[in-house]
Design goal:
There is one protein chain. About 25% of the residues lie in helices and about 30% in strands. It contains 6 helices and 10 strands.
Length: about 240
């Protein structure tokens, strides 16, 4: 199982972006995938707002804590056997011990934010059976990262376990949905949806509660309690490995 995830959100300047992406995809990622316990990597670019279908009922709250880094244009994820793989060494030590060229490239990241998370639950979607990528992340993901007052965490857990995750397991276009809990980083909770494409997500995700008004109301009540990281929920398409067409 790939129960550990190292997730990095960040922005990039226009100048030097192509050189950075070449280094990341051709040098940085392959080197890390040679480390014990690392199982896969995936790099994503966030979808522009005009290309994402949104919920008219969206009442998402975003943190106003100025200490939380605000990068959200790129998402880099590594999967491992468990979260402890990313503790030996931790990312900051790994980067400090890297080459001068790698440190130069890493310094290009703007607003870098990191979470190390462990998978608390998983449901396979209808597309999992024919998905050729194995445990690697799907071509399109939606990743929410947030905190929840502890008094509401039990209801949030029930909502995901009893409704949202089983419902997504029946939603066309969905490969997997994973509920995440953090061991490092600002956000304590995460929810990771995987879709075969952006088009499939836009077509099916928003309407998965149609015909279930009581569940829409439950979801709205839970959503009001969550405080999201900047840019969350992130909707993004994979740029490495390249998506075959």
């Amino acid at each position: 199982m790939d129960s550990g995830l190292w997730i990095t959100w960040y922005d990039l300047p226009a100048e030097g972006r192509d050189a950075y992406l070449s280094w990341l995809h051709e040098t940085y990622i392959p080197e890390l995938l040679n480390r014990p316990g690392y199982l896969w990597a995936a790099h994503y670019a966030a979808v522009e707002k005009g290309a994402r279908r949104t919920n008219a009922r969206d009442m998402r709250n975003t943190t106003d804590d100025a200490s939380v880094p605000r990068g959200d244009r790129y998402l880099l994820l590594f999967g491992a056997e468990n979260a402890d793989v990313f503790g030996n060494p931790v990312p900051s030590t790994l980067h400090a011990e890297s080459s001068a060229e790698s440190r130069k490239m890493l310094a290009m990241r703007i607003g870098e934010r990191v979470n190390i998370m462990t998978e608390a639950g998983r449901v396979e979607g209808p597309e999992a059976r024919d998905y050729k990528g194995g445990m690697a992340l799907a071509p399109c993901i939606q990743l929410g990262s947030y905190n929840c007052p502890w008094q509401q965490e039990e209801e949030m857990l029930a909502f995901y376990a009893r409704w949202r995750m089983p419902a997504m397991g029946r939603t066309p276009g969905c490969v997997r949905i994973r509920k995440l809990a953090s061991v490092v980083g600002w956000a304590k909770h995460g929810i990771l949806y995987e879709f075969v494409s952006l088009a499939a997500r836009n077509q099916h995700f928003i309407g998965h509660e149609d015909g279930h008004p009581e569940m829409k109301a439950w979801g709205d009540r839970v959503t009001k309690t969550l405080i999201h990281a900047p840019g969350s929920s992130s909707l993004a398409c994979r740029i490495w490995p390249a998506v075959s067409t």
